[in-house]
Amino acid sequence: MISAPTPVTVVGIGADGWDGLPEESRAALRDADAVIGGPRQLDLLPPECAVARVPWPSPLRPAVPGLLAAYAGRRLAVLASGDPFFHGIGRTLAEVLGPDTLRVLPHPSSVAYACARLGWPVEDTAVISAVGRPVAALAAALHHGRRLVVLSAGAATPGEVAALLRDRGYGPSRLRVLEQLGGARERVAADGTADGWAPAPGDPLNVVAVECRRAPDALRLGAVPGLPDEAYDHDGQLTKRHVRAVTLAALAPAPGELLWDVGGGSGAIAIEWMRTHPSCRAVTVERDPVRAARIAANAERLGVPGLRVVTGAAPAALAGLPSPDAVFVGGGLTAAGLLDACWDALPAGGRLVANTVTLESEALLAARYRRHGGDLVRLGVAHAAPVGAFTGWRQAMPVTQWSAVKPAGPPGADQT
Ligand SMILES: C[S@@+](CC[C@H](N)C(=O)[O-])C[C@H]1O[C@@H](n2cnc3c(N)ncnc32)[C@H](O)[C@@H]1O
User: Fold this and answer.
1) 134 alpha carbon to ligand 1 midpoint, in Å?
2) Which residue has a Cα nearest atom 10 of ligand 1?
3) In this protein, which residues make up the domain named Tetrapyrrole methylase (predicted)?
4) Is the pLDDT confidence value at 91 over 70?
5) Ligand 1, atom 16, residue with closest C-alpha
6) pTM of the model
7) What is the pLDDT averaged over residues 376-387?
8) Separation of 394 CA from ligand 1 center, angstroms?
9) Out of 177, 202, 385, 413, which residue is the most buried by the measure of CB atoms under 10 Å away?
10) What distance in angstroms lies between residue 234's CA and the mean position of ligand 1's atoms?
11) Residues near 130 by beta carbon (within 8 Å), at least 6 away in sequence
12) What is the pLDDT of residue 4?
């Protein structure tokens, strides 16, 4: 963090510009030695606001510390779009300067305006940002009957949203494009279904309101782990649905946590980890490049394009990865040093879960269980299937699962 003894005032401004600002915000802008902002926001300042105007460089994030340091000790204001702490510059400023150095004067966000116009309770409306991020993340938020607002990156976003909805079986969803919310040129620029969407030129300042409707023949994906196996493109290297649900329960993802999925296969464990919360992150390590490409495609289709796929063999490929909160080993258990590398990488309280169907790997897991404790379980799933004119159980290969929490204390202080 850089030191800035003088508070930096962050002023939210809307499409209604200077006219829409309360007096406190206007005074903060008039009294500043300099105002930093995006070119569009700076253009909203009237001539009477005769301060130095400093446009943010691009890319923005790396330039922020240097620019703020250059103005340290001077009266500085930062112009932000709408509510600065809602998908805005506020996050970066708080990270760089610390929240106590900021004086924040928010304006209604685009989502506040959108919900006001639509009559949607904000707390029941999911928000997905396509600003600087792939629109594919929208796929993880699709549930029949749910209301979403997509923050657009520009005029092309509504068409991309419609295409994604059609592709994921949500073509009957209703879309409305709301432009220039709160400004004189506010309008509903388009209203229709994703299936019937016709691209039309529009204003880059827009949000897309979506009422999700799943097509009757589309695969239904629930909100918890254990998606149907058909949700994945795979070559058989897939932790099947029932075992996957148990595995995710043992991994116990929490918001913001990072998973290593070692031996990614089809990526299902990492993908379902990330789908539990938008802030969950995962790295999957897969030695087979065809499977690695398939993992990336599955992640994109299921709404977690941020999954990091490392093509390489563990344990070597684990070197340099950020420290995980949990590790899943779905492949490569017999590779020399793999389990040790995973266990050593975990912080105290970190979880390790390993699955296997082979006796050789099972012996390794039994040894770990003796050494570290935890849970060693055998999962047997049988599916009812036709036996002639009758029905019988078809037993899948039993899966042995070891899960353990790394104890606190110095290295070697575990129960050996
Ligand atoms: C049973 S699959 C895992 C299935 C996966 N959990 C899923 O649900 O899609 C095991 C995978 O581990 C990979 N693998 C085996 N040894 C490995 C190693 N040392 N490093 C990286 N990947 C490995 C294999 O190529 C295979 O794709």
Assistant:
1) 27
2) 331
3) 8-189
4) yes
5) 332
6) 0.92
7) 98
8) 25
9) 177
10) 12
11) 137, 138, 150, 151, 152, 153, 157, 160, 161
12) 46
With cut-offs at 50, 70 and 90, classify the pLDDT of residue 262. very high
Mean pLDDT of the chain: 94
Q: Per-residue pLDDT averaged across 72-90, rounded? A: 92
Q: Is the pLDDT of residue 298 over 70?
A: yes
- Report pLDDT for 2: 55
pLDDT score of 396 = 96
Give residue ranges with CB within 6 A of ligand 1.
237-239, 263-269, 285-288, 291, 313-314, 330-332, 335
Which atom of ligand 1 has the smallest separation from the CA of 244?
8
- Does residue 9 contact residue 105 with C-beta atoms inside 8 Å? yes
For the cut 60, the answer to whether the pLDDT of residue 6 exceeds it is: yes
Q: What is the pLDDT of residue 66?
A: 86
